[in-house]
UniProtKB/TrEMBL annotation:
Top-level lineage group: Bacteria
Annotated substrate binding sites: D159, T203, Y204, Y205, E206
Catalytic activity of the protein: guanosine(46) in tRNA + S-adenosyl-L-methionine = N(7)-methylguanosine(46) in tRNA + S-adenosyl-L-homocysteine
Pfam families reported for this sequence: Methyltransf_4 (PF02390)
Protein's name according to its UniProt entry: tRNA (guanine-N(7)-)-methyltransferase
Database matches in PROSITE patterns: SAM_MT_TRMB
Gene this protein is translated from: trmB
Membrane-spanning segments: none
Pathway(s): tRNA modification; N(7)-methylguanine-tRNA biosynthesis
InterPro entries: SAM-dependent_MTases_sf (IPR029063), tRNA_(Gua-N-7)_MeTrfase_Trmb (IPR003358), tRNA_methyltr_TrmB_bact (IPR055361)
The enzyme's E.C. designation: 2.1.1.33
Residues at which S-adenosyl-L-methionine binds: E51, D76, N103, D125
Assigned keywords, A-Z: Methyltransferase, S-adenosyl-L-methionine, Transferase, tRNA processing
Amino acid sequence: MSKGKLAKFADMERYENVFQYPFSVVEQVPFEMKGRWREMYFHNDNPIVLELGCGKGEYAVGLARMFPDVNFIGVDIKGARMWTGATQALAEGLKNVAFLRTNIEIIDRFFGEGEVQEIWLTFSDPQMKNVRKRLTGTAFMERYRRFLVDGGIIHVKTDSNFLFTYTTYMVEHNHLPLLFRTEDLYHAIDIDDDTRRILSIRTYYESQWIERGKDIRYMKFRLPHGGPLEESGREIPVDDYRSYRRQGRSGVEMRK
Ligand SMILES: C[S@@+](CC[C@H](N)C(=O)[O-])C[C@H]1O[C@@H](n2cnc3c(N)ncnc32)[C@H](O)[C@@H]1O
């Protein structure tokens, strides 16, 4: 039987790989590991990679298994989801993965300048009505620049045509170096074996969308420092299917 939310929250309180600092907490208690994750938590000099909006943390845990010499941190505001990844990481003794429960809007409060090498954005909400809430919007890019190394890599994996098209325009308009882009990941032929192995990690949301026959899109680009970033202002067709209530096979609305 799966655990209830209260039991999961109790577990999270005592998990050594979980740091819970939602906005209400970080306003009261300063986050002492900012700029010191390697020294205070990972105890190594390895690069740090974030998964923002990690949900159950499939990428954070999956990548940690594949790359023992890289440190991974899954970030999300939903503790009950994060519990799955945190529990798995502890059970497997993975020392190179941690979880931060907070609001991504304040993510720059947790990492020092140049502390992070790469960011994964996995099946982020496209936020079709509010560009300032979109995790690939220029407002977030400006925030990421505060702690990402100059030219650090951003990976975007999504089912959403809206988010993918928006991000493509944002990258083009700001002349960000595009490293790879495909609109149909599972039928693309120009992918090397290592990248294919990494991209074969499937998240919870990814599995749901694949089941419904949606194409999975992926791109990676660099985010250099310096120079203002601006919105392209181009119009983008919305994802129609997202305007309907999400229905499971049984017709029951799916939990977000
Ligand atoms: C659509 S789900 C995707 C989850 C997971 N990456 C996957 O593919 O299964 C988006 C996730 O981002 C988290 N999220 C969205 N906006 C956030 C924010 N501003 N701060 C923290 N978490 C956020 C949600 O809680 C949710 O778990």
